[in-house]
Backbone:
């Protein structure tokens, strides 16, 4: 059995490893810098080490993926298909803007939540990603753009809280070793019973984004099969507990589907649920996929929904997804070359 990849390990862990290979401790810092700052993809790349020693550790994997496919949208968004060591393919998206570079990372190969409007859920579930496979996505985008990543959103393939251990470890590594502030990270979840409470215990500084997508339990069950085991009121109670335990507000994500959940009555119902809540609502106009017949709402419907929320003093933002025409937008990730 091959040793675990080195990507994802801390400076202390890498120093321990390098000493176990018979090298002096200062080599640990060199290894650390080459992995996290200089983008080494194998130990053969690290030229400060002797060629003879590099040959003795040639079997040690750093944990980098290989680029399977890359496509650039007209707005500058880049979609990457990355091939993992076992041949599985995941999607990662780089989203540039004037002042930031955001990476949308995946936490699983596929997704078991099977949300009816999401391409990833239609494709089934293969496995969880391990820590280095999550961290690698950020390094890949950073290297390709030639600039530092400033923000990370865990909104790619998968449900992060069904892979909580690796997701939390990746957040800590990206913060500690890659140098990205936790407050510049957002973790998005559709909700898994007990996992939001457990996340609060980690005392991270990330933004928690909870995908509601409906203003009542019956509607949510239609869109999100797992909602049957996690009623809306129970989910909201756990979110309130999260706010109390962390002192951080919760963002609620709500995909607007024409004629289904985009009516003023839905907005009023949603506002009632969020009364007294330290929260913010992100409205996301639906991004079409081939596997579902939902429609994107009109601009008038979006404006009316926003007006109803604002009238009820709910903080709200409309978030238009980037990379739409290259299937790199929210809900469109399916690990395909389309």
Residues:
């Amino acid at each position: 059995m091959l040793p675990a990849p080195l990507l994802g390990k801390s400076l202390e862990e890498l120093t321990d490893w390098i000493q176990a290979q018979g090298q002096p401790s200062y080599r640990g810092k060199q290894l650390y810098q080459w992995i996290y700052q200089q983008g080494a993809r194998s130990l053969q790349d690290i030229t400060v080490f002797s060629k003879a020693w590099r040959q003795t550790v040639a079997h040690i994997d750093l944990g980098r993926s290989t680029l399977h496919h890359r496509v650039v949208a007209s707005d500058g968004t880049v979609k990457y298909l990355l091939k993992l060591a076992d041949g599985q393919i995941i999607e990662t998206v780089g989203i540039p803007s004037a002042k930031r570079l955001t990476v949308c990372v995946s936490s699983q190969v596929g997704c078991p939540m099977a949300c009816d409007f999401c391409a990833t859920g239609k494709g089934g579930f293969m496995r969880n990603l391990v820590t280095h496979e999550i961290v690698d996505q950020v390094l890949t985008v950073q290297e390709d753009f030639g600039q530092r990543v400033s923000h990370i959103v865990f909104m790619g393939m998968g449900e992060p809280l069904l892979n909580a251990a690796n997701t939390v470890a990746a957040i800590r590594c990206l913060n500690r070793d890659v140098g990205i502030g936790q407050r510049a990270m957002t973790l998005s979840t559709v909700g898994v019973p007990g996992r939001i409470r457990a996340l609060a215990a980690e005392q991270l500084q990330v933004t928690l984004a909870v995908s509601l997508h409906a203003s009542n339990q019956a509607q949510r069950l239609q869109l999100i099969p797992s909602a049957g085991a996690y009623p809306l009121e129970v989910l909201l109670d756990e979110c309130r507990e999260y706010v109390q335990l962390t002192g951080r507000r919760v963002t609620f994500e709500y995909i607007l589907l024409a004629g289904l959940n985009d009516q003023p009555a839905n907005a009023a119902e949603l506002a009632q649920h969020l009364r007294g809540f330290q929260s913010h609502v992100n409205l996301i106009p639906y991004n079409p996929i081939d596997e579902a017949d939902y429609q994107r709402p009109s601009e008038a419907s979006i404006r009316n929904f926003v007006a109803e929320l604002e009238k009820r003093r709910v903080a709200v933002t409309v978030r238009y997804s980037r990379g739409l025409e290259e299937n790199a937008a929210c809900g469109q990730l399916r690990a395909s070359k389309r």
Notes: The chain has a mean pLDDT of 92. The first strand starts at residue 66 and ends at 72. The first helix runs from residue 11 to 20.
